[in-house]
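Hi R.,

Here's the chain you asked about this morning:
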Amino acid sequence: APQSPSGYFYLGQIRKACGDAAEAERMFRKTIEVRPKHVEALREIRLLQLRRAKGEFLEMPGLKLTASQAQRLWGLDRESCEALLGALVDARFLARTPEGAFMRPSGALG
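And the predicted structure, written out as tokens:
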């Protein structure tokens, strides 16, 4: 196994290109273990998390999650989950309900 952050990072890129998001994320996380402030690996992890979250909402029309439910579903810490949900709201992919849950805006397409 590689011991340099670059080795893990490039393995992550290869797994991502092959469509294996779970293994790609694992390699990007290994990159972070070796070099905690590896900007590209942190960015790749955020992108994979965004894709996974968007996929959940697209696969299940009508899905409505609170922040704590989303945090458990995606296995994220509170800060990461709030940033992810905030980014999806800012991009108008999700809307926040008056009760504080997150769901696709009515009439939203892919």
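The chain has a mean pLDDT of 92.

Let me know if you need anything else.
M.
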